Design the sequence.
């Protein structure tokens, strides 16, 4: 399957006539919406604004009635709205403008609201510190069959709009690679994604000791650029090395073709790369680990250390509950559902959403396993706790329109 994906990746700009479904399109597979868009950034945004109009209206109402509207006010007070306008990639601004124009109600879904969401990792670090996430990548001897397994939980508060509307947004940009993000309506810069070349990524929030800069791109927007333009981990590393980092963040990229991965620990005043170990594993929670960056992050909650220690126990060859050499889709899901806190020596109930400081009991609102070597992505859906629900599988050839059916084995992980 990988040669097919790589042949797709080598064709840019994208010729939408080559793709199976007429674009744009919207269909549903179980609880998951699959939105396919193509063209310029503005055209892709306009299509999203049209096809997801009802969902965007629900999202606007949710923001207005939630604590996020307070964050919007704080962001304006701190000048972050001006910063988001000035420091967003042109294609992000254009896609947001397309959504706003198609939606047709600038009070409910304005350009500022869209851009602030797309600049969220910088804004959140400036005005609120509440996110936590877990990632594990295994390859080579660590995985059951040598392919890359990239598992991740995105943790936050119980945001009903995101939980109720799991959405795969498949983009075919005129001037870049086809790529897919697992997100939500209105999500212009991704927190998780994979492109046609087999490059996968997800982000974890971190908090630096240095003040957030008043210039520089958001890291999720950098990730969008990488997915649209790069085929290898080496290209990602060179690109991130050259950027101004306005805030702290942890980005994990895996390369299905090279069967490689790295965790990028990024701060205003220091950066480091933790490569895939000789044993074939690398993982991250919400604190910096590399000596070059460990001194420049704020001490996180104990939960970050507890989850990191649990990943060591599960993924390393000598771990207390090691799955080393067995890591695949099923065991990746098992890791994401793990409820044991090794610091407290407590196993929390699987139905508990938050407050356990475990991989699964830390407020997970998105959960997915990406398999970039074979071109598959499995996403969880359903009520919280999200990781305990079923994972639905999608093949990249079907998502990108190169296959008529979503032929994938297994079709789901219950």
Sequence:
């Amino acid at each position: 399957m990988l040669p097919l994906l790589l042949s797709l990746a080598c064709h840019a700009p994208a010729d939408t006539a080559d793709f199976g479904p007429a674009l744009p399109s919207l269909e549903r597979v179980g609880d998951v919406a699959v939105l396919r868009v193509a063209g310029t950034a503005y055209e892709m945004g306009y299509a999203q604004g049209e096809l997801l109009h009802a969902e965007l209206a629900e999202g606007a109402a949710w923001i207005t009635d939630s604590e996020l509207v307070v964050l919007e006010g704080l962001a304006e007070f701190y000048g972050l709205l001006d910063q988001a306008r000035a420091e967003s990639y042109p294609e992000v601004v254009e896609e947001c403008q397309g959504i706003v124009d198609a939606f047709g109600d600038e009070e409910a879904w304005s350009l500022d609201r869209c851009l602030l969401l797309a600049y969220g990792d910088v804004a959140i670090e400036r005005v609120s510190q509440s996110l936590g996430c877990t990632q594990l990548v295994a390859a080579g001897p660590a995985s059951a069959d040598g392919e890359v397994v990239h598992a991740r939980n995105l943790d936050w508060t119980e945001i009903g709009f995101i939980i109720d509307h799991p959405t795969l947004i498949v983009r075919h940009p005129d001037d870049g690679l086809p790529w897919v993000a697992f997100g939500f309506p209105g999500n212009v810069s991704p927190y998780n994604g994979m492109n046609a070349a087999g490059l996968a990524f997800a982000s974890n929030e971190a908090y630096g000791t240095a003040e957030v800069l008043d210039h520089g791109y958001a890291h999720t927007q950098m990730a969008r650029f990488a997915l649209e333009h790069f085929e290898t981990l080496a290209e990602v590393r060179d690109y991130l090395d050259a950027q101004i980092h306005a805030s702290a963040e942890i980005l994990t990229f895996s390369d299905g073709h090279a069967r490689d991965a790295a965790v990028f620990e990024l701060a205003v005043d220091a950066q480091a790369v933790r490569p895939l170990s000789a044993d074939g594993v690398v993982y991250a929670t919400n604190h910096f680990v590399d000596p070059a960056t460990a001194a420049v992050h704020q001490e996180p909650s104990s939960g970050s250390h507890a989850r990191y220690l649990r990943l060591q126990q599960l993924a390393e060859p000598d771990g207390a509950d090691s799955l080393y050499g067995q890591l695949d889709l099923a065991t990746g899901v098992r890791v994401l559902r793990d409820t044991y806190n090794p610091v407290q020596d407590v196993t929390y109930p699987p139905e508990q959403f938050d407050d356990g400081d475990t991989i699964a009991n830390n407020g997970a609102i998105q959960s997915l396993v990406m398999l970039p070597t074979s071109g598959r992505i499995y996403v969880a859906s359903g009520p919280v706790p999200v990781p305990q629900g079923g994972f639905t599988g999608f093949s990249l050839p079907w998502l990108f329109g190169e296959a008529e059916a979503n032929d994938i084995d297994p079709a789901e992980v219950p």
The chain has one domain: 2-413. The chain has a mean pLDDT of 92.
